[in-house]
Write a structure and sequence with these properties.
Domain Conserved oligomeric Golgi complex subunit 5 N-terminal: 19-151
Main location: Golgi
Pfam families: COG5_C, COG5_N
Strand content: under 5%
Keywords: Coiled coil, Golgi apparatus, Membrane
Subcellular location: Golgi apparatus membrane
Length: 443
């Protein structure tokens, strides 16, 4: 490769001070000022600028001539150098073109082998994902439909109003099946078993035609069994055990079917069960209060009314006995810590009424309700009030006996293995009931 000509080989002596012009500190204004001062006296006025201007023009002409001379003498070496550089560049470009073509061919081959196949693989992956999603939905739907058929079969075991003997244990079995369906259908988050099921027509039909109606029917039957629960004095032991079994199945079903969605586990409570039991206790209190209120105005009917009150109280005592003996069902949708706090169903009801005994709650609440009725009779005066004051001792004894009888174990349960855990001494309840009547007669 040819080298460019050396400037020193063609350089001739010159009066121009190239070092001054090539110095990094060169300043045109300072150089012009030095020329003016060199050719003029600083005290002259005006200054003669023609001489320094001629000097500058002459220097510029000299430099131009020198450049022309250098380029003329070095034209051939410069052209040779440029030609050699051009040829070298062309050779490099030719080699680069071959390599670039090779790279392009390699890229096209990689595109065919990798990118195109990757696109095909991505399509296959999408198809596989959709097939897997379809399979998952199919399995979940199949499980739901199987649970739906199982629920229908279990519900048929319960029997209808006109059927003969019905299996009340089907209430609990149906409740667990409903919870299994609810567990699947409520798992709607991505990746969970029930994700996307709500969009399927079969699942909508299952919910509308099977799950919701049967769940409503199970709740209605359970609430009716609680509402109609009664243990008459003539009930035999076998009949008592049958009533116990029916009530245990009903309260267990209501416990299991109580809503769990949107409730924190530690604050969850069996709402349906508590509502049904609360309504039962308050209905008994309302009927007992009404009966005793009427009899206080008509003393000949006092014994009959107190017998009705005792019957209601013994029903509540039986209810407490059965609830205390019934263990809390295992709830699959409620975490274990929330369920381990209570071992029997009676604890939830006692906590709701803020009492330690339903019998005590019955008499104390009834005493507070009957007090207003006695005050009303006393304030009106007349023969009714005088009769009540005259027979206050008889009324007090009748109330005492009623409280004692109401706290006794029903005959149907007296032969069973499980004894009621109720307090045998009802002195406080007797005092409260007698005080609500006798203490208000003279007011």
């Amino acid at each position: 490769m040819a080298m460019p000509p050396e400037p020193q080989s063609v350089e001739e002596p010159s009066y121009i001070d190239y070092e001054t012009f090539l110095s990094p500190d060169f300043a045109p204004a300072s150089f012009a000022n030095s020329l003016v001062l060199a050719t003029n006296n600083p005290d002259d006025s005006p200054l003669d600028l023609s001489t320094p201007l001629s000097r500058v023009l002459f220097d510029a002409q000299e430099i131009d001539s020198h450049i022309h001379l250098l380029t003329s003498r070095s034209a051939v070496p410069l052209l040779q150098y440029t030609q050699s550089q051009t040829q070298a560049s062309k050779a490099i470009v030719a080699q680069l073109d071959a390599q670039i073509a090779s790279l392009n061919d390699s890229y096209k081959q990689l595109e065919r082998e990798i990118i195109d196949k990757h696109a095909e693989a991505e399509e296959i992956r999408q198809v596989a994902l959709r097939l897997w999603e379809t399979l998952r939905l199919g399995r979940s739907m199949g499980r739901c439909l199987q649970l739906g058929r199982q629920l229908e079969a279990q519900f048929s075991e319960l029997g209808g109003p006109g059927a003969g003997k019905s299996d009340h244990g089907a209430l609990v079995r149906c409740s667990y099946t409903i919870l299994s369906l609810r567990e699947v259908l409520d798992s709607k988050a991505p990746g969970e078993e029930g994700h996307g099921l709500d969009k399927l027509t079969a699942i909508k039909s299952l919910r509308d035609a099977v799950t919701v109606p049967i769940e409503r029917r199970i709740s209605e039957v359970s609430e009716r069994l609680v509402r109609e629960f009664a243990i008459p004095s003539s009930t035999t032991f076998a009949q008592g055990e049958e009533a116990r079994s029916r009530l245990a199945s009903a309260v267990s079903a209501l416990y299991l079917l109580s809503p769990t969605a949107g409730v924190q586990p530690e604050r969850w409570s069996p709402r349906l069960l508590l509502q049904a039991l609360d309504a039962y206790v308050r209905s008994a209190l309302q009927a007992s209060t009404a009966a005793l209120s009427r009899s206080l105005g008509q003393l000949p009917t006092l014994d009959k009314s107190l017998a009705e009150v005792v019957s209601h109280c013994q029903n509540i005592a039986s209810l407490e006995l059965i609830l205390e003996a019934t263990e809390t069902p295992l709830h699959p949708l409620v975490p274990a810590p929330a369920k381990q706090k209570q071992h029997s169903l009676i604890q939830s009801l006692l906590s709701r009424f803020e009492t330690s005994s339903l019998i005590s709650y019955f008499w104390r609440t009834m005493a507070s309700n009957i007090s207003a009725r006695v005050q009303e009779i006393a304030s009106r005066g007349g023969i009714v009030a005088r009769t009540l004051r005259t027979n206050s001792t008889v009324v007090g004894d009748a109330i005492r006996q009623a409280v004692v009888k109401g706290g006794q174990t029903p005959n149907a349960f007296s032969g069973g293995k499980k004894k009621p855990s109720v307090v045998a001494n009802w002195d406080r309840e007797i005092a409260v009931m007698m005080g609500s009547v006798l203490n208000n007669i003279g007011r």
